[in-house]
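Lab channel / #folding
Pinned by the channel admin:
"Please post every new chain as: sequence first, then the structure tokens as a reply. Keep commentary short and put observations after the output so the thread stays searchable."

First post following the new format, from NK:
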Amino acid sequence: MEAEPHPLAAPQIARASLRVGDRVLMESEVRVTPLGLLAIGGLVAAILLSVPPIVRAKRAAKALPPPGS
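Reply from TO:
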């Protein structure tokens, strides 16, 4: 009897296809594990959390007078 993979290591598969008229066909397939999805979510969260400090710094720099004034 073959052992089942751990639930967090079992890959999830998604496929999509897009057809435009008779000449264009695009197909895509992605395989990711639940741990991979967790890692992707962490990266997206880090990116989104880093945006407000960047915007705040840009606004603060814009409010300062130009150098040499």
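NK: The mean pLDDT is 88.
TO: also worth noting, The longest helix spans residues 34-63.
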